[in-house]
Automatic annotation (TrEMBL):
Protein known as: Pentapeptide repeat-containing protein
PANTHER family per the UniProt record, alphabetical: ANTIBIOTIC RESISTANCE PROTEIN MCBG (PTHR42999), PENTAPEPTIDE REPEAT-CONTAINING PROTEIN (PTHR42999:SF1)
Pfam family, one: Pentapeptide
InterPro entries with a match to the protein in the record: 5peptide_repeat, PA_immunity-related
Length: 222
């Protein structure tokens, strides 16, 4: 086990950390593009301002880690323990973030662009001032998640669990909450529990939700 290792400003491009145990390490400003972290222990690490673009982070423990201003573009982040992590102004483009445990983590001022977050438990995630463009949340658990005031464009929530989710004062353009398959009455009831007070919607999103009886009073059509 390697603890308190200092990789700050290091060139770690194309490095394999598979199976490593590197906890409480400093990866600040490190260039770790196209690196591999499979089945690794990376708890309490500081990845702030690092470049992890193109990397594969799979089935690893990264709880209590800091990804502020990190570049996660083109990354495959899957099946990891990412509890209590910080993602502030993190760059997340063309990435896969599916099937992770994000409990008690915070995404602050993050722009998600062309990101796959399917089949993921997001119930205890704190989203703050985020923007979602071409994001797929299909089959994820988003119960009680607060998306108030945030922006969504070309986003899919198909078959996601959305009970008591709120989009108050949010902006939604071409957002899908349905799939082409037959859905249960339970799913339709859950959709009706979503709060859209003061939201801005394009006609496509509005008509889709209105057609299944979702309460869209005080909605602005854009």
């Amino acid at each position: 086990m390697l603890n308190e290792v200092n990789f700050e400003n290091s060139d770690l491009a194309n490095t394999s950390f598979n199976g490593s145990s590197i906890n409480s390490a400093n990866f600040k400003n490190a260039n770790a593009i196209n690196s591999k972290f499979k089945s690794s222990s990376l708890v309490n690490n500081d990845f702030s301002n690092s470049n992890l673009s193109g990397s594969v982070i799979l089935a690893s423990a990264l709880s209590n880690s800091n990804f502020t201003n990190a570049n996660l573009s083109n990354c495959n982040f899957s099946k990891n323990d990412l509890t209590n992590c910080i993602f502030e102004s993190t760059i997340i483009n063309d990435a896969t973030l599916s099937m992770n445990d994000f409990s008690d983590s915070t995404f602050n001022k993050v722009v998600f662009n062309n990101v796959n977050i399917k089949i993921t438990d997001l119930r205890k995630v704190n989203f703050i001032k985020c923007t979602f463009n071409r994001v797929d949340f299909s089959k994820s658990d988003l119960r009680k998640v607060n998306f108030d005031g945030m922006e969504f464009s070309n986003v899919k929530f198909d078959k996601a669990v959305l009970s008591d989710c709120t989009f108050n004062n949010a902006t939604l353009r071409n957002v899908s909450f349905l799939s082409g398959f037959m859905l249960s009455n339970k799913y339709y009831r859950a959709l009706k529990e979503i709060k859209f007070e003061g939201a801005n919607m394009d006609k496509t999103t509005y008509n889709s939700l209105k057609g299944i009886g979702v309460n869209l009073n005080n909605i602005n059509i854009i």
